Amino acid sequence: MSRLVMKFGGTSVADMDRIRNVARHVAREVRAGNRVSVVVSAMAGKTDELVGYVEDADVDFDRAEYDMVVSSGEQVTAGLLAVVLQKMGIAARSWCGWQVPIETTNAHAAARITAIPPENLLAAWDEGKVNVIAGFQGIGPDGRITTLGRGGSDTSAVAVAAALGARCDIYTDVDGVYTTDPRIVPRARRIERISYEEMLELASLGAKVLQTRSVELAMVHKVPLRVRSSFDPPDSPLQVMADGTGPGTLVCDEDETMEQQVVTGIAYSRDEAQVAVRHVKDKPGIAASVFGPLAEAGVPVDMIVQNVSTDGLANITFTLARKDLRRAVEVLERERENIGYATLDTADNVAKVSIVGIGMRSHAGVASKMFQTLSEKGVNIEAITTSEIKVSVLIDEAWMELAIRALHSAFGLDAEDETRVS
Amino acid sequence: MSRLVMKFGGTSVADMDRIRNVARHVAREVRAGNRVSVVVSAMAGKTDELVGYVEDADVDFDRAEYDMVVSSGEQVTAGLLAVVLQKMGIAARSWCGWQVPIETTNAHAAARITAIPPENLLAAWDEGKVNVIAGFQGIGPDGRITTLGRGGSDTSAVAVAAALGARCDIYTDVDGVYTTDPRIVPRARRIERISYEEMLELASLGAKVLQTRSVELAMVHKVPLRVRSSFDPPDSPLQVMADGTGPGTLVCDEDETMEQQVVTGIAYSRDEAQVAVRHVKDKPGIAASVFGPLAEAGVPVDMIVQNVSTDGLANITFTLARKDLRRAVEVLERERENIGYATLDTADNVAKVSIVGIGMRSHAGVASKMFQTLSEKGVNIEAITTSEIKVSVLIDEAWMELAIRALHSAFGLDAEDETRVS
Q1: Contacts (Cβ under 8 Å, ≥6 apart) of A270
Q2: Which domains does chain B have, with CATH numbers?
Q3: What is the pTM of this model?
């Protein structure tokens, strides 16, 4: 018997009809002989409603109380799915985070899972039951309810799978991970298999299908992760084959991925802004005088470019999340005298486009092919960062879609037919 | 420092503005030097919404899962009230039933409280905190969430007060217990003090202001219980005096109540139906043949009248809750041959009117004064039951309001001015 954790997000459990649909997916896996634990999110919109109440009570709320309130949404879904499964003749019981227990740090609203003793879940399996677990929540060292931060249910699911030695299927509203966003590139293809490292890069570079933390956790614990659609027909035998082929996208170890393209996927982010600190003295410590105060103010910085002009003065340009732009400017204006710059220029009409692929390690010239492709389309590059398996460029947002389409073709990712986006 | 448990029902915490109003009531008591624990219900309508989900999932639902889902409502209110109190500068923390812990039997959806170890709540008091406790819920012997049945938050509050050696103020949407329903008798008066026994009779005879179970529990543990309005101005010094006078109604031991009327209050219930089993043999065992099968079918019976007619045949008449009438008739029709009756007559246009007062014990003639009063108004009595401190009559529902008004005057309960119903 195979051990399986199935995770369903908020849109998949948005109302009773969808919860019944989820139950049919679960029933199919149970009848196929799997031992199943399910991790559920709150019904879509419910968490926002609860957060709204808390913020109405106090914008500067106590995070322990926030967790008390907000965790109730997943508790409701878990109980309801257990009832629906029972009505279908599938033995099931629900679990709050504290009942499992899913033990976490004390960092309310942003807790990290420290341990999941598997005994209770294994005992319920031995009684022939499906475990239905409230995602997103746990219990802190002082016995209070914690939550894992937004989107934490993916992390709950992977952690439960690691504790149970199970594989993990993440059901979502898309049918897998795509070479890029099919709304931008109609010829984007579903990726059959992708390595943890590549998925991690894509997730952290803007692909929204999986939470970065959950991919990290899956990589560390070697939990095979499948991303698939909860809107697939639930009763049909869309089984995963013994060789791993099947619906959705399998995220797995590099050596289990097949021979493939040099570039696996293209991610993008519109959530970018750029700051140029112009005409500073080109001397040691100048970068520290810019980035020290930003770090103290809690503003994360992404790409950094420093260049020296002919007059011996330097420009320091960097990118950051668009939402942090105002705060960054406040900090730098306060520090103007100390840094000694002439002007501060900002832009929030920039976007980041990234190509990701493990094949880059063994193929030279990937970055230059990217720059060449963009140059042929007349796209100017404002900044560049690279890692072993990705190249990111900052460009004018107006050119973003054009750039993605050009790169998707250039690296051979186009499907023969247009993708149908469900 | 006085120890106080304050309980707020669903209409008192129906939205954020009302929760802020509740917090001002709590703040007033804290600033007056009391050690305060608060018990809250779910926001009005929330429990019905959650029950609706469960019933949609399966009409024949698992009660353990029902408790998982339905208990979430109180959890939300407790967290929100704690946040609002903190914002007002009052140290506070919330508690789920399992965190206190409020230990209960395993009877899901109708659990009884078995113990409340007070250590955690006392420790929070020692840290200067207000405890905000989710009502209606507890934890069963197997570590699963239980609920106490509808209206169980009153019971939670009294049980917490008993565990803490505190008095208990029940805040509701009326400003106390009245001699009868002011919507029927505009001259109804608020009762200043009432004994546990009288309150118990009134509650079980149809007065809806307090749950019967909570009054029973208060009586056993001698918890002084005050019923008062959450719509009173929260910041004004509506303090309870040392002699116990104050807003609302104090429910307390008989020897603490003052000299008073023979009749303290008049209760009524429209939720009544009557069944007449006519022309049965007047022989031993005939009553058992009627009421045995009803008991087996779980139909509780209230008043019973048996009389023998001149032809040696008997009639057995009894009353029951209107919602049980159809089931009772089914049972009796099935048992017709065994009982051997001629006809089965039913009526659901009947009502029960009851007078309650500890003074009856020492005053003769209370019942006959009641019958005389009704007779003078031409009200026919269908059935009578009595206890040491109450007399109930079954009458035609059409005469109910007339009967209540006549009795209210006859027993000297009318106020000089009309009551303003808030």
Answers
A1: A322, A351, A397, A400
A2: 3-173+193-255 (3.40.1160.10), 265-410 (3.30.2130.10)
A3: 0.86
